[in-house]
Amino acid sequence: MSEILSVEQADVSGKRVLVRVDFNVPIAEGSVIDDTRIRKALPTIEFLAGKGAKVILMSHLGRPAGTGYEEKFSLAPAAERLGVLTETPVHFATDTIGASARSAADALAAGEILLLENLRFDKREKKNDPAFAAALAELADLYVNDAFGTAHRAHASTEGVAHLLPAYAGYLLLNEVQTLTDMLENPARPFVAILGGSKVSDKVGVIDALIDKADVIIIGGGMCFTFLLAQGQSVGESLKEEDWVDRAGEMLRKAENRGCEILLPTDVVVADRFAEDASVQVVSADAIPADMMGLDIGPETARAYAEAIASGKTVFWNGPMGVFEMKPFEAGTKAVGVAMAQNSQARTVVGGGDSVAAANKFDLSDKMTFISTGGGASMELVEGKALPGVEALKGE
After folding, report:
1. Is 309 a residue whose pLDDT tops 50?
2. Which of 50, 104, 117 has the alpha carbon at shortest distance from 78?
3. What are the residues facing 57 on neighbouring strands?
4. What is the DSSP string of 73-142?
5. Catalytic residue among 102, 123, 127, 199
6. pLDDT confidence tier of residue 396, bands split at 50, 70 and 90
7. Active site includes 123?
8. What is the largest CA-CA distance in the chain?
9. Rounded Cα–Cα distance for residues 200 and 206 (Å)
10. Is 39 known to be catalytic?
11. Which of 105, 168, 196, 389 is the most exposed place for a label (fewest CB within 10 A)?
């Protein structure tokens, strides 16, 4: 972390500061319906404004075509919401690098805030186009990246522009990188990792990395069935990846050799179809009917997982235990989340994506030590991959 300069180390008074934030927020009928990501960026924005910087914010929103303005992906509602949160007017540019952006940036007074229109209205953003990055850089004197959720993407606003201006990290990005790095390099033990989600193929790098770091790995979600297949069990109509069975077996053997305990379900909730009103029953994990599919861990497994979580001093969670969006299949995910929330002796870290959604659904978020804002970015960091948006801040 010493190689990355903090925003606090920058001389920002009177300077134009271009800040990459993550305002990729849900919007309905022209209003932001969840402002979590905007709130997460406030410490950096308010620090800069308070120091007399001219703050120029840029972000993406959704997945526009990249061929120009699309109303449903406009960041105008985010600018309005930011103005409410900061209790100061937020200027809004109707483009990113065009005349509106340049004139709005030039007109800023010290302490004022400008939000540019959606970066991804221009396809050159995702291509990390040098000319687009240069045009962004021309708007400012300094660059700050505070968008950890996009730090694993080498885009113009996250990587390209960082090489063209003095570059610094905002509070959110610094906190994310520091927390996840410390968790991996200096965990209080036992270190318990909970991994769910649908596919082994999506998590193979993360599992491999955690086998070297964790004391216990808890496996749930659809990917547990590929591991059960690797143990020679039948899984009926459950989600499975036949091509990854051998690889799953290798990971089980690696964990045994490393002294890392991998916990798999001993019972599962099965259904005759993927539906809220399906016919449901609990069966032993080694007795899944051929015509049924597993959609959650069973109660016996949930109790065993909760016990393992209760023993941890560091607990990391990424991925649900079942289809928690449906009432009949939410109990396993809820049990894991509650066990984390109740473990007051542990540092509990929730790693992005569906786990955050589950923690929010069950009102557990405020009981966790740390909730990561970056799904893909946090997973790549845990996996040991370099994040382009972070590496670019380290200078040449």
Report:
1. yes
2. 117
3. 19, 115
4. G-SHHHHHHHHHHHTS-EEE-SSSSSHHHHHHHHHPPTT-EEE---GGGBTTTTTT-HHHHHHHHTT-SE
5. 199
6. low
7. no
8. 69
9. 10
10. no
11. 105
The catalytically annotated residue of 62, 127, 376, 394 is 376
Q: Which amino acid does the sequence have at 260?
A: C
Instruction: Please check the confidence at residue 194 and state whether its pLDDT lies above 60.
Output: yes
> Which residue, among 4, 32, 8, has the nearest Cα to 151 in the 3D structure?
4
Q: In degrees rounded to 5, what are phi and psi of residue 158?
A: -110, -25
Let me know: does 146 contact 173? Beta carbons within 8 Å.
yes
Digit-coded pLDDT (tens) for 244-294: 999 999 999 999 999 999 999 999 999 999 999 999 999 999 999 999 999
Please report the pLDDT score of residue 87 as a whole number.
86
Q: What is the residue type of 91? A: H
199 is catalytic: yes
pLDDT reading at 395 higher than 80: no
| Number of other residues whose CB lies within 10 A of the CB of residue 252 | 17
d(CA 394, CA 87): 34
Say how far apart CA 170 and CA 147 lie, in whole Å.
8
Instruction: Give, as one character, the DSSP assignment of residue 67.
Output: B
- Where do we find the tokens 């996996």? 383
Q: Of the candidates 324, 373, 363, 322, which has an alpha carbon nearest to the alpha carbon of residue 341?
A: 363
- Which residue is catalytic, options 16, 37, 203, 334? 37
Average pLDDT value for residue range 145-158: 95
From the list 353, 374, 375, 389, the catalytic residue is: 353
pTM of the model: 0.89
160 a catalytic residue: no
Report how far residue 245's alpha carbon sits from residue 87's, in angstroms, rounded to the nearest whole number. Answer: 55
Task: Over range 40-57, report the average pLDDT.
Answer: 97
Average pLDDT, the chain: 95
CA 349 from chain centre, in angstroms, equals 11
Q: Encode pLDDT of 310-365 as tens digits.
A: 999 999 999 999 999 999 999 999 999 999 999 999 999 998 778 888 999 999 99
Q: What are phi and psi of 171, to 5 degrees?
A: -60, -45
